[in-house]
Amino acid sequence: MTEDSAGRLVVTLDLGGVTDKAGLMDRCVRDLALPDWFGRNWDALADSLADPSVWPEGAADRGLVLVVEGWRAYAEARPDEWAVAEEVFAEATDRGPGLFVTLGPG
């Protein structure tokens, strides 16, 4: 974890090699340190991203920037699923105060 110039915590979600929803959910658990109760579905992901209580320590107070990298292979392999993932990221950004999700290098 690092921080940006505004002091927000920056976490990278590395999707390199991911080509399906199950892989995406596994990476979310790993890279975002999601709790054991995380349901590994789109609704659970949206809820977790929008809930500062499950963000990394300190992020609720400072804000969280989630940089999604290595996403292109997934987007090409499963465009319909990737469209849902993008919607979840956008919705979570709208719902979660202090959350910003951005796409990094594909």
Automatic annotation (TrEMBL):
Barstar (barnase inhibitor) domain span: 10-94
Coiled coil: none
Matching InterPro entries: Barstar, Barstar-like_sf
A Pfam entry, by short name: Barstar
Family classification: Belongs to the barstar family.
Descriptive protein name: Barstar (barnase inhibitor) domain-containing protein
Taxonomic source organism: Streptomyces coelicoflavus
